[in-house]
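Minimal example, chain plus cytidine-5'-monophosphate.
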Amino acid sequence: MTKFPVLTIDGPAGSGKGTIAEYVAQKLGWHILDSGALYRLVAVAAQKKNIGLDNDVALSELAENLDAVFLPCEGGGVEVCLDGDDVTHAIRTEECGCSASQVATNAGVRKALLQRQRNYLVAPGLVADGRDMGTVVFPDAATKVFLTASAEERAKRRFNQLNEKGVDVTLAGLILEIQKRDIRDINRSESPLVAAFDAVTIDTSELSIEQVVAQVLSLVADVSEKNTM
Ligand code: C5P
């Protein structure tokens, strides 16, 4: 068991992890770890320094020395800074997600980010969002959730988000992009995307955000009730 309670939320791109993690963390008053942002930051840092996405040694060094700051904004959201520059929007592009998933196949990078991720666990508790939170980073977490949804549904959600922001994308293109990322994340040898054996899987395809949040909060409540018995 971890020193403070941890809820891990893993799952493929677009399954709703980030949104659910934010709502649940707010309800519980816990901290949040957006581990995908760390891989995205390594990808941005590599691009800035012209480092190839398969250069494990140079990328590991970058990851080890990553000067990343997450500043909670008033009224929600987080400002992300890399080497003092605001990269909040730069790390959210589809292109950056794709580069991050290439960076994430490097064993040295994953090793370099491991302790940094564990350092996010402070009182009163942590909601950790990613691909390997329940399997590798916090294997002793008390509550583990694995969110899924069909590739079409995930692409549709992303399409709507990007459309709202005025970004010109096609649904077919996004489906292909998501499938490509899934294949890479599931088949890599280092910390592949897989549900922890003790995770509860929730298919969010047909559920509202409120329904998923309620299910996750009830899982957390069950665990804390068991621990106080
Ligand atoms: O979650 P997000 O889409 O921001 O993650 C970007 C990429 O970073 C993922 O496609 C995945 O390859 C990688 N990642 C990972 N392990 C994590 C979080 C993200 O490999 N814990």
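DSSP finds nine helices and eight strands in the chain. The mean pLDDT is 93.
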